[in-house]
Amino acid sequence: MNSIHDMGGMHGFGPVVPEPNEPTFHAPWEGRVAALYRAMGFARLWTIDAGRAMIESLPPATYLTASYYAKWLMGLEKSLARAGLVGADEIAAAHSLRPASRRTHVMAPRDVANLKRADYARPAAAPARFDAGDRVRTINEHPAGHTRLPRYARGKTGTVEAVRGCHVYPDTAATGTGENPQWLYTIVFSGAELWGTGADPTLTVSIEAFEPYLVPA
Amino acid sequence: MQARVRALETILTEKGHIDPATLDAIVEAYETRIGPRNGARIVARAWVDPAFRQRLLADATDAANEMNMQSPVGAHLIAVENTPSRHNMVVCTLCSCYPWEVLGLPPVWYKSAPYRSRAVIEPRGVLADFGVALPQDTQIRVWDSTAETRFIVLPMRPAGTDGWSEEQLAELVTRDSMIGTGLPKAP
Predict the structure, then answer these.
(1) Domains and CATH numbers, chain A
(2) Contacts with A62 (C-beta within 8 Å, 6 or more apart), sequence order
(3) Residue B161 sits in which domain range?
(4) CATH classification at residue B112
(5) Which of B13, B70, B124, B126 has the most C-beta neighbours closer than 10 Å?
(6) What does the pLDDT look like over B106-143, one tens digit per residue?
């Protein structure tokens, strides 16, 4: 969706402000939110892309003003409501008003020894359409749902730099319509292709693009 | 926020969906075990061991897991190497994708609108915000993490470190040098 989360190339947000000796969490509740997110992810009730879609669909003004872990909390509350696990009335009451609607896979303390990410590679149904070195153009489509092709890189011509394997396709995984695995490529663009004549002449930018995002150039 | 988070934790605990002891363990893991020291060990090994460097650039997940990391490294980690003519920088313009297992949780600036908006269009301006100025002819490559691949920058080994041990070298490797917004410390 063409929402505020798709920030590449926007102007006006000011300088980047690094924080010296930044703590892992700035308040205890941030750590609890991060942990809740990981622990509920273990139950596999929704995909990583469905979780992202929840945060992307926050109102733009909320997205820009809420802190990072506050957005995670809002996304988590929405995901839990959609999964039928927690009701808005329970959140308002601050405790459960009904027994669990279903049993879920509960992450145990011993599971924390292995916090490694999931593997998103899947067997391919067909050979890769493109090879390293091929010239490709990204599609110029504007789906209302979740996609991982940023606006700044739509309708642009670039070069396939690497074939990364066949991966879960975010655009369908986000809606619960299946993993629909697709070949994934690193596509590199010149600065001028993306940003015009004013671009830094030393700049190249790459995106990780799924095959449906690409056509031969 | 504190009350709202506590409410959700209470509800999920009462319904049997989470174990609060697990949350304690996750917070502890990210505060103590899973951080940029893991990535620094990988970089220092690559600086002293050319065969390891080759394996790292070929498959960073496998190479990292050779090192008995404090927490195993998941799939699709990719190492990108800085050279005298090329500097790499990593961003996620769409959200906050970051190689948690080797760098820990991302800093606030990495997830902020200024970084996500500017890194892809004006990386030298971003570097200036970090006090870094590269030669005008250095090629800059920005990697936008738009899928489940994750990137770690392999910075250049600082001059004047001949004969240093892996442990000594790891102390020079900053988190920002592995994102591409900084350089390793000078010896």
Answers:
(1) 28-113 (1.10.472.20), 135-216 (2.30.30.50)
(2) A71, A74
(3) 36-179
(4) 3.90.330.10
(5) B126
(6) 999 999 999 999 999 999 999 999 999 999 999 999 99
Q: Which chain A residues contact residue B148 at CB under 8 A?
A: 48, 117, 120, 167-168
**Site of tokens 């980690």:** B77
pLDDT higher than 90, residue A136: yes
What is d(CA B52, CA B33) in angstroms, rounded to the nearest whole number? Answer: 23
CA distances (Å), origin B15, targets A25, A152, B11: 27, 44, 6
Q: Which residue of A3, A4, A5, A7 is the best one to mutate when testing the B interface, meaning the one whose CB has the most B CBs within 10 A?
A: A7
Counting as low any pLDDT under 70, the low residues of chain B are: none
Closest CB to B8 among A77, A208, A210: A77
Out of A38, A64, A109, the one facing B19 most closely (by C-beta) is A109
Asked if residue B107 and residue B165 are part of one domain, the reply reads: yes
pLDDT at position B69 is 76
The pLDDT of residue A151 is: 98
